[in-house]
Amino acid sequence: MKIKACEDTSLIVPLLKELHEHHLKLDSDLFKQVPDHVYPEIVLRALASGEHHFYLAFQDEVPVGFIWLEELPVRENDLVRLERSLHISGLVTKNHLRGQGIAEALLAQGETFAKEHDYSQLTLDFWAINDLREFYAKQGYQPCKYQYHKSLI
Question: Which positions ≥6 away from 41 have C-beta within 8 Å?
Fold first, then answer.
């Protein structure tokens, strides 16, 4: 397996679509059904910002997963000291290849990018319905903040 930086929307989009379709299956009330032309627009907008980076995992030159990294500004206020952070906006592995270490290798690439660009932390979040606490804990991630949601409708 090889991991490479990628800006080729034709390679990124199918993985993004697979990730989004997975989320749709988990909660179709939360996630929107979108037409196919929206996915390339999302990727192009992210790449154009200069603050988003995609790394793809390849097996035999075929994309099998990605990590989507987003450079976040410092959000310090008078009461809380927060450091500049690199955020994992997305992590996906092809369903039939899960459990083969692809996600772990992509996370390691995210950590390498963070260190090379002087980020002191790498953050991520995930939807509660897609409970990944155990997986991320095994990778050394620790909870920092909990967000709760109450529907008022």
Answer: none
Cβ atoms of 91 and 55 closer than 8 Å = no
Q: What are the Cα distances from residue 33, in Å, to 3, 40, 78, 79? A: 30, 15, 40, 39
Give pLDDT, residue 81: 73
Q: What is the 3 state secondary structure string of 18-33?
A: HHHHHHHHHCCCCCCC
**Residue 44 in tokens:** 């192009």
CA distance linking residue 12 with residue 18, whole number of Å = 10
**Pairing assessment for the beta strands 52-59 and 2-6 based on DSSP bridges:** antiparallel
Residue 52's alpha-carbon distances to 73, 79, 153, in angstroms, are 12, 28, 34
Helical residues (DSSP H) of the chain, grouped into ranges: 9-26, 38-49, 102-116, 133-138
pLDDT range class, residue 92, cuts 50, 70, 90: very high
Alpha-carbon distance 116 to 111, whole Å?
9
pLDDT band at 79 (very low <50, low <70, confident <90, very high): confident
Q: Does the pLDDT value for residue 128 go beyond 70? A: no
Instruction: Answer whether residue 4 shows pLDDT above 90.
Output: yes
| Burial class (CB within 10 angstroms; exposed 0-12, middle 13-18, buried 19+) of 15 | buried
